[in-house]
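Handout, page 2. Input:
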Amino acid sequence: MGPARSTHRAPAGGGRLDTILVRLYPDQSRARLQSWIEAGHVWVEGRRASKAGARLRGGESIAVDVAPPPQIGPAPEPIPLEIVYEDSDLIVVNKPAGMVVHPAAGHDSGTLVNAVLAHARDLAGIGGEVRPGIVHRLDRDTSGLIVVAKSEPALRWLQSQFRDREVEKVYLALVDGAPPDRQGRIEAPVGREVRHRQRMGIVPASRGRQATTDYRTLEAFERHTLLEVRPRTGRTHQIRIHLAFLGCPVTGDRVYGARRPTLDAGRQMLHAWRLAFRLPGHSERREFEAAVPPDMATTIEQARGGVELAESSGSARPRAGRAARVGEKRPRSSPQRASPPGGRGVGC
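Output:
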């Protein structure tokens, strides 16, 4: 037999689902209760709950599968990590392309979480057993910077900055073709496609979440463009979807771009280049940078046809004799905006 189901009523005044569960189950930690929600053991008004932060108005019926089967957390695995920065609160890692961030269906091992657990044994259980320490995510085939919290206070500190959009994220993207303007802003809601539920896409505002992406051309090639991209929101696959919507999909992106890569690219040419945030207890932001990985540098060389990559910073650098028209700093004027057909402004 499965676990017994216990039923309750949300207290008057409501509140966050996980906060209400803490009151109902004081002997359980918030992280454990959140893992129950993630595992599908909590129901609200007859529907399986999926978000720990879901807000209840009060009076709703809550059903909990009491004493669910113990969840075995990810196992530590001695996988090499390129650590950009580490202190007692957090780790900043340069994630290689091809590595999944946390265990999920089809990826039980070999993830960033498995590697970090071997490096920092005290990480287990921080923020939940399934994704300990994870504050944000990168797609499997996106390389670059990701920060992992090593304590609950650090996790909350970082989460608040991501939630309030105080974290500066800068990506490098090699794209097919060119955007309509050298720099601009894309504002289009992102959500799941109706016909292909495994894919995300541009959807009507009523079915999606507002998403904003700024871009700037670093260098224009004959058939490709190297862009600096700054996502202002953090939707799933946001950069890839927005650039494809703009007509210049990320090179090598077989999901939202060309099925056959236009260059010899083994994956999507997207790199989380820079990351800036406040360290716990600090008021000033600290910026970190990860050099362009060799496979992306090689692909950029193919598109560039004679321009080298600056090894120290991973930024584009023209060879002597070529005009420094790409990568030069330009005035930060009001960017051009791209919106879905028939849309007007943010959230259209």
